[in-house]
TrEMBL record:
Residues 42-80 form a coiled coil. The chain crosses the membrane at residues 6-28. This is Uncharacterized protein. Keywords: Coiled coil, Membrane, Transmembrane, Transmembrane helix. It comes from the Bacteria. The lineage of its organism: Bacteria, Pseudomonadati, Pseudomonadota, Alphaproteobacteria, Rhodobacterales.
Length: 110
């Protein structure tokens, strides 16, 4: 192989490598490109995600409000329960006193 043939063979190999690299670059660009339809779909998905996050935040706020209301109602019910239990104990004491009184009164007459 003489010098001219070597230069031509090297030039052909380099040109083929250039063409192969250019084709690979074009193919990667073509496959990786986002189309307008895909962009529209991505925007739609982003809007749906945003709406879902707002709905979740609203549900969390409502849940926290409801929980606070229920905690308040439970506290009120517990205080009423303790009050009624105290009154019930007083009633039991009063009933026992009345029984003792009745037994004493009936015991003196019998």
């Amino acid at each position: 192989m003489n010098r001219n043939e070597f230069i031509i063979a090297t030039a052909v190999i380099l040109f083929a490598a250039f063409l192969l690299g250019w084709f690979a670059s074009w193919l990667i660009h073509r496959l990786g490109r986002v189309t307008r339809a895909e962009m529209g779909e991505l925007e739609s998905m982003a809007q749906q995600l945003h709406d879902a996050e707002e709905a979740r935040d609203k549900a969390v706020r409502e849940l926290e409000e409801r929980e606070a209301e229920l905690v308040g109602r439970v506290g009120k019910a517990e205080s009423e329960l303790q009050s009624v239990q105290g009154e019930l104990k007083e009633s039991h004491v009063e009933i026992e006193e009345l029984r003792d009184y009745i037994e004493r009164r009936l015991g003196k007459h019998a």
